[in-house]
Each structure stands twice: as structure tokens, then as C-alpha cells.
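Running this now, will post back.
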Amino acid sequence: MVGLVIVSHSERIAEGLKELAGQMATDVSIAAAGGTNDGRLGTDAEKIITAIKEVYTEDGVLVLFDIGSAYMSADIALESLSDKMREKVQIVDAALVEGAITAAIECSLNKTLNEIKEELRTLSIAKMPQ
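Update: finished.
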């Protein structure tokens, strides 16, 4: 089953969203990587690496993030992983709350990483104003 990592500048947002998504999909491995190691707002590549390793499976890991610099931290984290592990981790740009809940449910249905990414892409398209 695909694991899920939630990256936010706020530890409380990441933990709260982990809790919410976990209520929707109790059997999915979800990790929160929010804030810095010293408790400030921001992101930390080391926290993201730890979170990825916590939920990693051969099925893959989906990483969702809140804003731009969280993406950069997640990308730096990926660079630090082994080649084998990096192949199985995808960073996806999606609305964080809706994306995390949708991803958790899709993970619980044993969908593949690519199927989950497509569902998140569809969700993004559906929400675009005309």
C-alpha cells in the first residue's frame, strides 16, 4: 500500500491533517513533516526524510506539500534518498486538505501511485473555475 507524507510549514497543520486523513483511512501509513526541528514555522528536509522512511513501502510514497518552499525542501529530501528509494517517491502538487484526504482514501483502496496521482490531477481540474 502506498504511504503518505504531509509536508507543511506548520507542525500543527501537518499533524492535524494527518489525524483527519487518518480518520478517513485508518489502515494507511501517514506521516507528518511540519515545521522545523526547533519548533518554528518552516520546513526541514531531515524531517521529510524521516517521514518518508517511516511510511515507505515498495508500492511507493506520495508527498503532499502546502506552499512553494515546502516543495523545495521535499525535493532536497528526495535527493538524499538512495536511487532505489527515490524511484518510489513522488511529490505531488495538490490542494493540501482535499489532496491528503483523497490520497489517503485512494491509498486505502490499494491503488497504485500513478492511479492516486491521476485521481489528484482530476480533483485539481474539477476545482478550477471556468
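The chain has six helices and four strands. More later if anyone needs it.
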